[in-house]
Amino acid sequence: VSRAGGLVHEYWTGEGFRDINQAAQWRQAAIDMVEAYVANLDPTDEPRGVERTVGVVHGGTSLSGRIDRIDQRGDTLVIVDYKTGRHELTIDDAKSSLALAIYAVAAARTLRIGCRRVELHHLPTGAIVTWEHDDDTLKRHLDRANSIAGECASADSAFRAGEQTEAVFPARPSSLCGWCDYLRQCAEGQAVTSGRASWRGLPDGPPRG
Ligand code: SF4
What interhelical angle do 20-38 and 2-11 show, nearest 10? Predict the structure, then answer.
């Protein structure tokens, strides 16, 4: 357990925090959170993969991603995705996640073991939300990914063919523009916000530790 906390300490970066005090508070909170999580893990239970890249081709679209953790439980694989945000997770988060569905299919294809179950592990609370896919739900997600990729490819082709950027990729300013990495290059976004400091998303007051 202390080794896990030590790794957080070793690889922590204070970049993006208001100052060194805020960075130190959040580093300690992260160490506490990780230590509390790993205290409930079986150290002899070796995951089938960690930060494992997997891929699958569906409908002509090549889909790939890097999975936080793949467990093998019995003769099936389980996708584990870590979450650290404030948002309290629901089953719908696991069920509706396009990424998790792609991971399940891609992991099964890559490791040649069935995979239907996806899990979100919320480190701040220790809550685990699970969803068991079937062939139909997985196919629906992959069809959607294929459709999104098709729309992106069409927009890309139109752009290369000389269509106006604004027509192909119209800006859609909203309250989220304050967090956007492209705000400095986006006049429409700047018209609705002047941007927010990166640490503004943190809750008021000291982190839970
Ligand atoms: S700043 Fe521009 S690019 Fe970013 S989300 Fe807003 S409208 Fe979109």
Answer: 150
CA dihedral 119→125→126→131, nearest 10 degrees, is -20
CA distances to 161, 165, 183, 184, 197 from 191, rounded to whole Å, are: 29, 19, 10, 11, 17
Ligand 1 contacts CB of residue 188 (under 6 A): yes
Strand-by-strand arrangement of the 61-73 sheet: 49-58, 61-73, 76-83, 115-122, 127-132
Q: Of 114, 125, 116, 47, whose CA–CA distance to 90 is shortest?
A: 125
Q: Which residues contact 122 (CB under 8 A, 6 or more apart)?
A: 83, 84, 88, 89, 128, 129
Q: Could you read off the pLDDT of 32-76 as tens digits, one per residue?
A: 999 999 999 998 999 999 999 999 999 999 999 999 999 999 999
Q: Specify the pLDDT at position 209.
A: 43
pLDDT higher at 196 or 20: 20
Q: Are 126 and 37 in contact (CB under 8 A)?
A: yes
Determine phi and psi for 185, rounding to 5 degrees.
-100, 5
Q: E strands within 3-140?
A: 49-58, 61-73, 76-83, 115-122, 127-132
pTM of the model: 0.85
- CA 88 to each of CA 34, 93, 122: distance values in angstroms, whole numbers, following the listed order: 18, 10, 8
Ligand 1 and 129: CB distance under 6 A: no
Residue with CA closest to ligand 1 atom 7? 173
Ligand 1 centroid – CA 186 distance (Å) = 6
